[in-house]
Design a protein that fits this description.
The protein is of the alpha+beta class and 173 residues long. 60% of the residues lie in helices and 16% in strands. The protein is built from 6 helices and 5 strands. Strands 2-3-1-4-5 form a 5-stranded antiparallel beta sheet. Helix 1 crosses helix 3 and helix 4 packs across helix 5. The radius of gyration is 27 Å and the shape is elongated. It starts with a helix and ends with a helix.
Amino acid sequence: MHRKDKEALVEEVAGLLADAEVMYVSDYRGLTVAQISALRGALRPSGARLRVLKNTLTRRAAAQAGREELLELLNGPTAVTFCGDDPVAPAKALIEFARKNDALEVRGGVLQGKPIDGADIKALATLPPRDVLIGQVVGTMVAPISGFVTVLNATIGGLVRSLQQIADQKAAA
């Protein structure tokens, strides 16, 4: 690779590193090209992109992008997964693929500027998807209001039933 090509690649990777809030670093040693393509396909629906990168160029790009927390993860063959808005779906895809293919080792990553390890990524993979979490939060916020409406409705309903019983008694008498 020529120097100009390397400089262009460092610029591109630095841009990706600067823009990504969440990224996961994996060791892909032992995976075939077909398996890496299958992993890319598994990550695509979640909006994540997998890039196989040279460590020396990635170190330069990380220093240029101000992502020093990534440097300690750059040992051996490295594949970096750049995630979209949802950090959970790519984590699930990576961990599921690693379960089926022992050759993939998820080393760690960066989550909103803080380093995380492989165990943290496994924990992220157990979370429900983002839409489900938002639904749970909204449901928790709505529950007290819904309970209050139910109590008011029951009180008004009880008053109406009492008035109906009084009306029935007067009509019978």
